[in-house]
Hints:
The protein is an alpha+beta fold.
Amino acid sequence: MWFDTTVSILKEWDGTTWLASTLVAVPTLTSGGDLRITSSTTGSGSYVLVVEGEGWLFGWTTPLGNAEEAVLGTDGIVPEPSYSQIGIGDDGTPDQRRELMDSIRQQLGYPVVDVELTKYQLDTAVTAALESLRKRSAAAYHRAFFFVDIPPGEQNLLLTNKTVGFNRIVNVMGAYRVTSSFLSTAFGSGVYGQIALQHLYTMGTFDLLSFHLVSQYIETMEMLFASRLTFMWNEHTRQLSFFQTFGAGRNSTDTGSGASGIPAERVLLDCTLERSEQELMTDRWTKSWIERYASAEARMMLAEIRGKYASLPGAGGGVALNAGELRAIADADKEVCYQQLEDFIVNDVENYGIGSTFVIG
C-alpha cells in the first residue's frame, strides 16, 4: 500500500494497477480526550474505546496527553532536508521516477540485452542526478518574495509556517525595508520615491543624473547609519537572524506584535524555494539533463559490474564485456551535462543572474 498525497487516498496494488484501498481501522480522539479505534469493515459499527484512566495507555504517560487545537504558523522543525520532505522536494507520486528508470534500462539495451542493474541501483542513479542538479544549478529552485512583520526588539525569526510557504525556503538572498529611513516621506527608496524627490528638486523634470545621485545618496546613508539589513539564514534550524534590532514600524497591520501595542516593521524577504523532483523531471529544460546524468551514473555502475571480468567463456572463444566503453560514454555524458551548466542552458539566469550562489570551486 502507499498513500497518494496529491489526492489523499490510500491505494493498494492488485498486481496490475493501483486501486483505492480502505483502512482496516480509523483512530480518532473523542471530545473527552479518549482514543477511539473504529472498524472500517462494511456494515460494522464496532469500535474499541481507550478510556483515560489508571492502567490504560494514556494513564502511564507523564505528563498526561491533552488534545489541543492546532495553531497556524507554529509548525515544528522537520529534521530532514527540504528536498526529502513529502510536499516540498517530493510530492509523493513515483510515476516520473519509474518512467525515467525504464527509459534508462531501454537505453542500455533492455529487454534485448540483459542489464545487470537492480531497481535500487537505478533509483540511486536518478537520486544522484537530482542531487547534482540541486547543487550546481539555480534551475532547481523557485524565487519568491514574502512579507514578514518583525516586532520591535526582535532579531530572530523562525520560518516554519506551512500555510504561508516558509517551510519551502532554501535560502534567503535579501531582506529589504518597505520604508526607507531617509525617504520615509516619499514612501521608500524605490522608483516612486525617487521620482517624487526629483519633482521637488527639478520642478517636474526627469533626468537620469538625478536618479543616480539619489540612489547613491540612499546607499551611502544606509552604510553610514547601518540602515541596510544584514542577516544570517540557517536552513536546518529554519532561523533567520538579523544583526540589528527594529523599532516601531508604519507599514504593518500587525499592531499587537510589539510591547504595549507598538506596531511591527514590515520587511520584504527575497527567497529561494525548493522545486519538487516531479516538477524537475517534467520541466522542458531540466528533464533531458536529469535523464542524461542519471544514464551516465547507471552506465558507470554497470561498468563496475562488467569490469570485474574482462571476458566470459563461451562458444567460439568467449564473450568480451564492454566495461571500458561504458565508462567512456558515461564520462562523455557527464562532461556534456557540466558544459550545459556552464553555458547556462540548464540554469535560471534571468532570476538569479550569474548564479553566484551555486558556484563550485
